[in-house]
Amino acid sequence: MNTQKKLYLLPHRCQLIGWILIGASLVFVIGSILILKNEDEQFTYAAGGMIISFIGLLLAGLSREKQEDEFTVFLRTRSALTAVAFMFALKVVLALIAVTLTELTHLHLIGEEVFVNNRSVAVPFLSLKEMTGYGGAFILYLLLYKIRLARYYKEVNDEE
Amino acid sequence: MMKNNIRVERAVLRISQQELADAVGVSRQTIYAIENGKFIPSTELALKLSAYFGKTVNDIFSLD
Fold first, then answer.
1. CB contact under 8 A, B33 and A71
2. What does the pLDDT read at residue A40?
3. Is residue A20 predicted with pLDDT exceeding 90?
4. Do A152 and B29 lie within an 8 Å CB cutoff?
């Protein structure tokens, strides 16, 4: 099986663009929270930054390595499976915790918003749904894959 | 589990991991991972490695 033909990935140069977008979006989001006073404006710019970060994640995570072969495919597959399984388990555990805490404290912890003293604190990009959904799973896949790949690069260099 | 004697065969031919990797069309990390038992190659790659050393697949790879 020629895995290079069957695996549809973006060109390698998209990886650098992706990481730059991720870095820029973090600066954008943090900057908007620190500089802007209006909550609506903060939310708008933060949401925009989040979209940019997701585009960056897609570019960084779905682009080829310099040399893509069956070993990198193996690492990608294993990382993706671990990420999905872990995030699903985390989602179940957090849902149970959220339901329990909601019952005990009367704070509405389920859903997109957190209510404190009947005042809505909208944190959609930090909500449980986002962290344990497709976005969180993809972030975890990218982290696992890159860490595992870096570890093998280091071991090979150490052996040399 | 599988074991292999790629490292021994490389030493006989006095070639590096990078040279072997270039010869069979994979990365050096792949050769390293195979030699250290961290990755089991596909049938295609196993056949390429065996052909490079002029041996059969059973001469290079075996079950534990």
1. yes
2. 76
3. yes
4. yes
Mention every residue, 6+ apart, whose C-beta is less than 8 A from residue A19. A56, A60
Distance CA A122, CA A33 (A): 13
End-to-end C-alpha distance for chain A, whole angstroms: 31
Q: Check: CB of residue A124 under 8 Å from CB of residue A112.
A: yes
Distance from CA of A132 to the nearest CA of B (A): 30
Query: Bigger pLDDT: A56 or A5?
Result: A56
What CA–CA distances, in Å, run from B22 to B19, B25, B49, B50?
5, 5, 11, 15
Closest in A2, A69, A159 to B27, CB measured: A69
Query: Smallest Cα–Cα separation from A18: which of A66, A50, A57?
Result: A57
Considering only CB atoms, A69 lies closest to which of B17, B30, B32, namely: B30
**ipTM value:** 0.89
Contact (Cβ atoms closer than 8 angstroms) between residue A49 and residue A29:
yes
Query: Which of B6, B42, B44 has the most A C-beta neighbours within 10 Å, making it the best mutation to test the interface with A?
Result: B42
- For the whole model, what pTM was predicted? 0.76
Separation of alpha carbons B11 and B6, rounded Å: 9
Q: Does B17 touch chain A if contact means CB atoms closer than 8 Å?
A: yes
Tell me the count of A-B CB pairs closer than 8 A. Answer: 34
User: For chain B, how many residues are written?
Assistant: 64
How does residue A63 score in pLDDT terms, banded at 50, 70 and 90?
very high
* Beta carbons of B25 and A69 less than 8 Å apart: yes
